[in-house]
Design goal:
alpha+beta, Enolase-like, domain 1, 3-stranded antiparallel sheet, DNA-binding, homodimer, 5-stranded antiparallel sheet
DNA sequence: GTTAGCACTCGGATTAAGTGAGTGCTAACA
DNA sequence: TGTTAGCACTCACTTAATCCGAGTGCTAAC
């Protein structure tokens, strides 16, 4: 099961080569690199061994070899060199993320875009989960007219709003806002229960002279809204990147993949499946739960506030992706988000 | 220049056929339809005439004919049959648009999606222009912490928010909100000038006891924000639809097109160029200002509130698109938006 | 253990021939 | 005079045959 040092070097050379060219690599190409000082015949023998052991695969008899999923896995776990992201790229990322971004959803959206810019692959990210976000403030805002506006701000700086079909005047808005915040402020959406809303209604009924029907109408809207806010949202960036790679050079395959990426339910499942890993998670080819992804690899990272996970950012690319670069990029982005959020929330009570 | 009745019928038959099959159509195919009772030889003669007149084009000697841009133009202007959208589709659209949508941006987004669902083509739409929207209310909301939230609601139901790096307490928020609304409420963003903000500052300074520096800080943020809000935003739906059509069966072409659709500046220009038309505007092939669109057609429609244009919805598809259906769909959607917005704003003062 | 040499494999490119949809023209017909 | 049948011709596309070369596995010599 163990690989000799030489076999490892050869495997690494093959994978490095294949990642660059997307062509099956032959013994001669490796020999010519002259890093190992071995003839093609020797390499050929070693390659045959590596194939027997399952690390390499031949597309057909007279082609070179390409890495198997197991080969990639070994590469990722043991062989891969650390990738150093250029100072300029880091600077650009910092500037992009820090620059006047003080709303969490905007920050994450930018982070998702930057991930696809850095890696040149398709990225998927989930919007910050409201279920796990702590409510800072929930306002009802009176509009002159037949409706009013609900406004929710979380501690991490996420802002959501919703127009409702209920007219409230300034007094009612202020009183209801106060009642709501006395009960909900500091809770996460997941923690809020039916009885919280009952409590709000009682509070409003007892301490204000707002019409009971109006209270229950408005609080009903709030309750319904909070429920829907818990639902996950996913976004895809740069999905057309897959057209760049020879793996998808036929339109049919490409379209299948794009269709797959369009289906939010799939994406949510993917993101959930990537979630149970520490730091950067990698799924190679058939390791993915979806058949549609059997020719791609998925690299995911969580973003969190403190130790509360808010969502994930993922990169989807061909199995022969530049793992080192992708991992370094996601790592960088997640630490940046972390430090921004820390700074962003520490002023708060 | 005039086309005989028979020539028109033949041209129509050719275009109808070509729209369906995407294959050059030959004289025999038209003859076999048996609508005209003419032999293929006769049709052949007429087709030769139509080619001389510029309505048809031959890809090569021994292929059938395809319509030229001029041919399509004549078809669209004079030949095309009215398309009747199915009752179910209309119902679905109404339900989708009316159902609990009371924010303009959400409504337009849904309309854009529905346009691509109905037509099965790529759609582009501009977000409602804030520059031309009348401000209903601009609120400053106090957050417990180092920042506060700006909230803008337009008469048509567009909601925008922005976190700013300035702490205000409830008193300051209420007073500043009042001052701002006394000056800005009822104006469109385009109408607001520098002196409006000066007026707000004076007002706040004279009638409240808020610190002068804080007033100018906050109002400065508001001014800056309002300026940026004037910028156009465009969105693309279902861009992968282009992969469906044989015109883009090679990945290179498809990618070029997708890249083009990704560039928001292009899209803004496209939408602007489509704008100066009444009702539904159609640009066929080379009629478009962009070389990238020379093999596509663009159908645009404005959506407006009263007589104030807020933005556009456009369909981009192959030149052999089903014009009748696309036009009918956009027409339907724009009238629906119109009636919703009418109903939506008529309650207001 | 390493390597040179060689027969063998097989996908991809190249070429050649065949196919068929379509055209344009001509001559006959109503 | 308009319509049509007939026929030679064109040309993209398909299929088959051939060639080419990168790559392999195996063997024998170093």
């Amino acid at each position: 099961m163990d690989l000799s040092d030489r076999k490892q070097k050869i495997l690494q050379a093959i994978i490095d080569e294949y990642i660059g060219t997307a062509e099956p690599v032959g013994s001669r190409a490796i020999s010519k690199r002259n890093e190992l000082g071995l003839s093609s015949a020797t390499i050929r023998n070693e390659m045959a061994d590596l194939e027997d052991m399952g690390y390499l695969v031949k597309p057909h008899t007279s082609a070179g070899r390409i890495p198997s999923d197991i080969g990639y896995r070994f590469y990722v776990n043991s062989l891969m060199q650390r990738y150093q992201i250029s100072v300029e790229a880091v600077e650009r990322l910092k500037e992009e993320l820090f620059n006047r971004v003080n709303q969490l959803d905007v920050l994450i959206k930018k982070a998702g875009v930057m991930a696809s810019v850095l890696t040149e692959y398709t990225t998927v990210f989930t919007a910050p989960s409201l279920g796990r976000s702590v409510i800072r403030k929930l306002d009802i805002i009176s509009m002159s007219g037949a409706n009013s506006l609900l406004l929710l701000v979380t501690k991490a700086g996420l802002v959501k709003n919703k127009m409702i079909d209920a007219a409230v005047d300034d007094y009612e808005a202020a009183e209801l806002t106060a009642a709501i915040n006395r009960v909900l402020s500091g809770k996460t959406c997941d923690e809020i229960t039916e009885s919280d809303f009952e409590e709000i209604c009682e509070l409003a009924l007892r301490e204000t002279d707002i019409d009971e029907r109006k209270i229950s109408l408005v609080i009903g809207y709030v309750a319904e809204w909070i429920r829907t806010l818990g639902e996950s949202e996913v976004f895809v960036n740069n999905s057309r990147a897959i057209l760049q790679y020879p793996e998808f050079s036929n339109v049919g395959k490409a379209r299948e993949m794009l269709d797959f990426l369009e289906d939010k339910d799939n994406l949510i499942k993917i993101m959930e499946s990537g979630h149970n890993t520490e730091g950067v998670g990698i799924k190679i080819g058939a390791e993915n739960d979806f058949k549609e992804l059997e020719n791609t690899s998925l690299v995911t990272v969580d973003y969190k506030i403190g130790d509360r996970t808010l969502g994930q950012i993922a990169v989807i690319g061909p199995k022969r992706m530049n793992y080192a670069k992708v991992i370094a990029s996601l790592d960088l982005i997640s630490t940046q988000i972390d430090s921004i959020l820390k700074q962003f929330t520490e002023g708060e009570g």
